[in-house]
UniProtKB/TrEMBL annotation:
UniProt source species: Brachybacterium fresconis
The protein, known as: NADPH-dependent 2,4-dienoyl-CoA reductase/sulfur reductase-like enzyme
Obligatory cofactor(s): FAD
Coiled-coil regions listed: none
Domain of life from the UniProt record: Bacteria
High-level lineage: Bacteria, Bacillati, Actinomycetota, Actinomycetes, Micrococcales
InterPro entries documented for this protein: AIF_C, FAD-oxidoreductase/Apoptosis, FAD/NAD-bd_sf, FAD/NAD-binding_dom, FAD/NAD-linked_Rdtase_dimer_sf
Reaction catalysed by this enzyme: A + NADH + H(+) = AH2 + NAD(+)
UniProt cross-references to SUPFAM superfamilies, sorted A to Z: FAD/NAD(P)-binding domain, FAD/NAD-linked reductases, dimerisation (C-terminal) domain
Keywords: Apoptosis, FAD, Flavoprotein, NAD, Oxidoreductase, Transit peptide
Mitochondrial apoptosis-inducing factor C-terminal domain residues: 304-349
Domain FAD/NAD(P)-binding: 8-301
């Protein structure tokens, strides 16, 4: 049995940024309240984006540098490596895999997501990157010249490939498309990124749909079309699977795989809130949507925690997302979908751009490529466009590329 007390004013299930921010908001609004954080991860909350960004490119590769110090700064009782297996909203209790039953006044589900895995078999040379333990494992495997096959040419796959190349690995990036990130960026940017990745020694292999991995003396990756590739290590970026089992088994209202929440991030169960990756919420600009990025976790965790402690704040926010790829970087809001019409505005030297993604006459998303401190303006542009106050011919003058 654990040494947790049997009941807390507030219980948070999950150990990411949303959990950290919720605990901070609760503690700020109700300093005397008792808080428990139950996390399945072996490590406490960290700034998780660093696992594919700063820890590979910065001066300090130790994940301890990204510790959020949640327990020390909020007074929460943090229990890591603790899986919650059942939620009973009527009794206001949760049950852990160890058999402990813990009562709560309010509960936050911030369970996030886990990597989609290839089959049931496990080999230590096949890695995923979601937790601190995953990062440590991958770091231990990589040496100068290690042949690494990264599978997945999306947001995380490209970041991981860039990080591994910086660490000295011999990287091949296998992806399903014609070019990397083709679902997000126009050809002007994807062609530039192709050159940049190749200049950093990364081999790009398109049209590669992974069918399986043979774990012999070396790993052999086989594509659906019969092609094969050898590697010492494979890192799979096959997308994420929402950790929604607890919510679903407790009978919470769901929309597909996502937990439905109201404007204050309350679920359909009395006393239960949800935040971060797992929720479907109402974006003030884009309506009902689901987002899996740290800015959303940060903001929704903050709002949920405030409301758990008695607040009545609406989650009235359009999250941003961002990435850095070698010397390039971007911030973005909304839908970056190349099936939409794209209006590109470039700086004179072609080093920076603002890309508007148009759904008819309305802006559905904005990419700020090497353009900084412009997210608030981008939100204003989207709002004005969607309200009919800004015509498409007026868009190029709204945000200066490279700002």
């Amino acid at each position: 049995m654990s040494d947790l007390t049997s009941s807390f004013d507030h219980v948070i299930v999950g150990g990411g940024v949303a959990a950290d921010m919720a605990a901070r908001s609760i503690h700020e609004k109700a300093p005397a309240a008792t808080i428990a954080i139950l996390s399945a991860d072996a490590d406490g909350p960290v700034y998780r984006p660093a696992l594919t960004k700063d820890l590979w490119h910065g001066e300090d590769p130790d994940p301890a540098s990204q510790d959020l110090h949640t327990a020390e700064e909020t007074g929460a009782e943090l229990r890591t490596a603790t899986s919650v297996t059942a939620l009973d909203p009527a009794a206001r209790t949760v049950t852990t895999a160890a058999g402990d039953t813990i009562g709560y006044g309010t509960l936050l589900l911030a369970t996030g997501a886990s990597p989609r895995r290839l089959g049931d078999g496990e080999d230590q040379r096949v890695a995923y990157l979601r937790t601190v333990a995953d990062y440590r494992h991958l770091r231990d495997l990589v040496q100068d010249g290690t042949r690494v096959a990264v599978v997945g040419g999306g947001y995380l796959g490209t970041e991981i490939a860039a990080g591994l190349a910086h660490a000295g690995a011999e990287v091949t990036l296998h992806h399903t498309g014609r070019v990397i990130l083709e679902h997000m960026f126009p050809d002007s940017i994807t062609s530039h990124l192709t050159e940049v990745f190749e200049q950093h020694g990364i081999t790009l292999v398109g049209g590669f749909r992974l069918a399986g991995i043979d774990a012999g003396e070396h790993l052999t990756l086989t594509a659906e079309d019969g092609r094969s590739a050898a590697a010492d290590i494979a890192v799979l970026g096959l997308g994420a699977q929402l950790a929604n089992d607890l919510a679903r088994s407790a009978g919470l209202e769901m929309d597909g795989d996502s937990v439905v929440v109201d404007a204050q991030l309350r679920t359909s169960a009395e006393g239960v809130w949800a935040a971060g990756d797992i929720i479907r919420f109402t974006d003030p600009l884009l309506g009902d949507r689901h987002v899996e990025h740290v800015d959303h976790a940060w903001a929704s965790g903050t709002t949920a925690g405030t409301n758990m402690a008695g607040g009545q704040e609406a989650y009235d926010y359009t999250p941003l997302f961002y990435s850095d790829l070698f010397d390039d970087g971007y911030e973005a809001i909304g839908h970056l979908d190349t099936s939409l019409e794209m209006l590109e505005v470039w700086s004179e030297d072609r080093s920076a751009a603002v890309v508007h993604y148009l759904d008819g006459e309305q802006v559905a998303g904005i990419l700020l490529w090497n353009t900084w401190d412009s997210v608030p303006t981008a939100r204003e542009v989207m709002a004005a466009s969607r309200a009919g106050r800004l015509r498409r011919e007026e868009l190029p003058a709204q945000i200066a590329p490279g700002g």
